[in-house]
Amino acid sequence: MAQQQTQPTPGSGILDAVPLFVVILLAAHVLALVFWMYKLASEKQPPRRKTQ
User: Fold this and answer.
1) Does pLDDT of 9 surpass 70?
2) Nearest one of 41, 19, 39 to 31, comparing CA atoms
3) Each residue's pLDDT tens digit, 10-40
4) Which domain of life is it from (predicted)?
5) Distance (Å, rounded) from C-alpha 30 to C-alpha 38?
6) Distance CA 40, CA 28 (A)
């Protein structure tokens, strides 16, 4: 049996990096969401005044 060796195409390096890019992008969005929630929870609320 003859063994076939596939030669990598020039653009395959970019295609191999796509899943890593997606994971990094997802992690950045999760961190931004956590930071946004932290800022909302820790900001000081102005005192309420009763209006009559």
Assistant:
1) no
2) 39
3) 667 888 899 999 999 999 999 999 999 999 9
4) Eukaryota
5) 12
6) 18
Report the alpha-carbon distance of residue 36 to residue 15 in Å, rounded: 32
Size (the chain), residues: 52
Q: Which residue has the tokens 């899943």?
A: 19
- SS3 track for 18-49: HHHHHHHHHHHHHHHHHHHHHHHHHCCCCCCC
**Token digits for 48?**
């309420």
Q: What angle do CA 23, 40, 26 make, to 5 degrees?
A: 5
**Residue 25 CB partners (closer than 8 Å, separation 6+):** none
